Amino acid sequence: MNQEDLDTSLRTNVSDRRARIAAVLFAAIALVMAFDIVSDARSGTDWQHLATEGAAMALALAGAGALWRGFREVARRAARLDVDLEAARREAERFRGEAKEALAGLGQAIDTQFERWGLTPAEREVGLLLLKGLSHREVADVRATSEATVRQQALAVYRKAGLRNRSDLSAFFLEDLLLPRAPD
Asked: Is residue 43 part of a domain?
């Protein structure tokens, strides 16, 4: 599970806990009101006061019920999302397993081409991260360097490769992977 999944899971758990606590508090308020209504009825309190407290108690129970139903629906959705996420992970793992040999060959081919271009180790790493689709800022974060340094290294990659930009870099390696379009 990556950091984003953990953060989302934590937020969901905190939200679930708050909804449960609110539902229990509403139910507790309704229970306290019920005891108060019984006590007031025994002491001879007028019916309008009892009716008002009864209505407030009913609203508290309705709030507790609504919160509880909402919590249950969120829990059902979360369970469905967990199933979908697990299916997507299995599919990605299956793809990686099936394509392992091809991906290893592509990785070796990319590394060989980087070597032909005379890229430094830092430029190779930047080039690979750019091919993976990371932004300059993300590459800087991964490499614990400044975004300006990454930009300079990216420009060096393009210059040494005789390419203009990231699109050209991607196309250099991926263009031949796409099958030609079938005529309409």
From this structure: yes
Report the amino acid identity of residue 112: T
CA 137/CA 26 separation, integer angstroms: 47
State residue 24's pLDDT score.
Answer: 83
φ/ψ of residue 153, rounded to 5 = -65, -40
Given a contact cutoff of 8 angstroms between Cβ atoms, the answer to whether 158 and 169 are in contact is yes
* DSSP state at residue 135: -
Q: Are residues 2 and 64 in the same domain?
A: yes
Q: How far apart are CA 14 and CA 21, in angstroms?
A: 11
How many domains does the chain contain in total? 2
Both tokens assigned to 161 = 């490769």
Predicted confidence (pLDDT) at residue 152 exceeds the cutoff of 60: yes
177: enclosing H helix or E strand: none
Q: Which residue has the tokens 């229990």?
A: 24
Dist. CA 21–CA 15, nearest whole Å: 10
Residues 60, 33 contacting (CB under 8 angstroms): yes
This prediction's pTM:
0.49
In-domain check, residue 104: no
Are 19 and 73 contained in the same domain?
A: yes
The answer on 74 and 137 residing in a single domain is no
DSSP 183: P
